[in-house]
Specification:
- This protein has helices at about 10-40, 40-65, 75-100, 105-125.
- With about 130 residues, it is mainly α.
- The protein has 4 helices and no strands.
Length: about 130
């Protein structure tokens, strides 16, 4: 089996990862609407920012981590996962810094949304089938 990006195994992994990302987006948007109608626009902006700080790095991780698949390319698989995770951590830290520097963040909705999105990959496998 080929270790290229068009490998059938990589398509399955990418498809599942992007289904999780769509679920995260929906959860953040629903949370932002609820927060907006309950507490106002500033709280909703903070909730959206908290979700974005998590979702954006997850998108890059999914693109990087699912480049290779198969037993013959196991070293490439591990390397792409590790480098994807490193990139995700750095990008998350950078987005945190940018959010707190340039946005008027309210901590409770920001961190609530952030934690919700961080927990989503633990919950979505029960609702999303491969």
């Amino acid at each position: 089996m080929s270790s290229t990006q068009n490998n059938e195994l990589t398509k399955v992994g990418k498809r599942f990862a992007f289904k999780q990302i769509i679920a995260m987006l929906v959860a953040v948007i629903v949370l932002a609407f609820v927060v907006y109608f309950k507490w106002g626009i500033e709280y909703a902006k903070s909730a959206l920012a908290g979700g974005a700080v998590t979702i954006i790095p997850n998108i890059f991780f999914a693109l990087k981590a699912f480049r290779y698949a198969g037993a013959r390319s196991s070293e490439k698989v591990m390397e792409s996962f590790y480098s994807g995770e490193k990139m995700k951590i750095v990008l998350t830290a950078l987005l945190f810094a940018l959010a707190f520097k340039f946005l008027a963040i309210l901590p409770v909705p920001f961190f609530t949304s952030f934690c919700l999105v961080v927990a989503m990959p633990l919950l979505t496998p029960f609702f999303i089938k491969h």
